[in-house]
Design goal:
six-stranded mixed β-sheet, 285 residues, alpha+beta
C-alpha cells in the first residue's frame, strides 16, 4: 500500500508495508531476520477528528476504546501482541531502563511501575518495546550477535544529552553488546528545514557537540532563530557511541512535511494523536 510520503532526498530508507494498517520499516533490521519492528502512520485506525485515525496515545483526550483498537490493528500488522508491549514513560530525559518479563504489558495492559523513562532495552524474546512520537526522533538499536534491542525517544533535549549513546552503554553494561555489532537507525521525525529553535537551544548543542560539526548541525537566520538538524546530530551520537557507519541508517522522512500522514506537534500543537515506534526480538531465532 503506497501512502504518498514526501522524502527529503532520493535515498528511500523506509518502505510502506502492505496491508490495511500500513507502517514504515527498515530493511537494515528486516534483513537480520531476528526482529519485528515498525513505525506507525496516521492511517488505518478508528479515531476521529483531530486524532484521525491511528492515534496511539491514551493521554491526549481520545477515546480509550479507540486507542486500544488502534493498538490491536497496528499490532496485527507488525505481528506483535498488545499483551507483549512495554511502553516508555517519556519526559524528555536521558533515562533508559532494561526491561524483563516483569514489565511485560506495562503501559497498555497494566500500569507502569516506573516513570521518567525515555528509552528501553531488553534481551527478552517476544517483548515489544514501544515509544511515542510526533516530531521527536525515534532511535532503534539491534544487536544481532547478543540478540539485544533498544528503543529510545530523542527530542532536542534527549539529543543534546545523547540518549542514543546512553542506550548503547546500557546494552554494553547489561548484556555485553559490542558497539561495532549494533545496528542503529533514526526514524521519521522533523527535518532541519522545518525545525526552528532559539539561541538558548543552540548554545546547549555548542556545549555538547564539537565545533567542527556545528555547520552541519545548525545555521542562523536573519530573524535570530536557528534551523537545527536532529537527524545529523543523532547520527553523530551513534558514531560517538562506537557504532560503525555501515551499521547506521538515518531517516529521510519528515513528520512535519508529511503531517497529513504522520502526526506533527509543530503542525498541529496539542490537538493531535501520537505515532509509535515498535521493536521486538522474534521468539525462537
Amino acid at each position: 500500500m503506497g501512502i504518498g510520503l514526501h522524502y527529503k532526498n532520493q535515498n528511500k530508507i523506509f518502505y510502506e508495508a502492505e496491508g490495511e494498517t500500513p507502517y514504515l520499516e527498515y530493511p537494515l533490521f528486516q534483513n537480520t531476520g531476528i526482529v519485528r519492528h515498525g513505525f506507525s502512520t496516521r492511517i488505518g485506525g478508528v479515531s476521529k477528528g483531530c486524532y484521525s485515525s491511528l492515534n496511539l496515545s491514551f493521554t491526549r483526550g481520545d477515546s480509550e476504546e479507540a486507542v486500544r483498537e488502534n493498538f490491536r490493528r497496528i499490532g496485527r500488522a507488525i505481528q506483535v501482541r498488545c499483551e507483549d508491549m512495554v511502553f516508555t514513560q517519556q519526559t524528555h530525559t536521558v533515562n533508559v531502563l532494561a526491561v524483563t518479563e516483569e514489565e511485560r504489558g506495562m503501559g497498555i495492559m497494566r500500569p507502569r511501575s516506573y516513570s521518567d523513562v525515555d528509552g528501553l532495552v531488553t534481551n527478552v524474546p517476544g517483548l515489544c518495546l514501544v515509544a511515542f512520537f510526533a516530531d521527536c526522533v525515534p532511535l532503534y538499536f539491534v544487536d544481532p550477535v547478543k540478540k539485544v534491542i533498544g528503543l529510545s525517544h530523542s527530542g532536542w533535549r534527549g539529543t543534546v544529552g545523547k540518549i542514543g549513546k546512553v542506550t548503547v552503554e546500557l546494552m554494553q553494561q547489561k548484556y555485553g553488546s559490542r558497539p561495532k555489532d549494533i545496528l542503529a537507525a533514526a526514524g521519521p521525525s522533523i527535518c532541519q528545514d522545518c525545525y526552528e529553535v532559539s539561541e538558548d537551544v543552540i548554545r546547549k548543542f555548542q556545549a555538547n557537540f564539537k565545533e567542527r560539526h556545528w555547520e552541519e548541525l545548525f545555521y542562523r537566520k536573519e530573524n535570530g532563530k536557528y534551523q537545527l538538524n536532529l537527524w545529523k546530530a543523532n547520527e553523530l551520537v551513534f558514531e560517538e557511541a562506537g557504532i560503525i557507519r555501515e551499521h547506521i541508517a538515518v531517516t529521510n522522512v519528515c513528520t512535519h512535511c508529511n503531517s497529513k500522514i504522520l502526526y506533527s506537534h509543530r503542525e498541529a500543537g496539542d490537538r493531535r494523536g501520537n505515532l509509535c515506534a515498535f521493536l521486538s526480538l522474534k521468539e525462537g531465532v
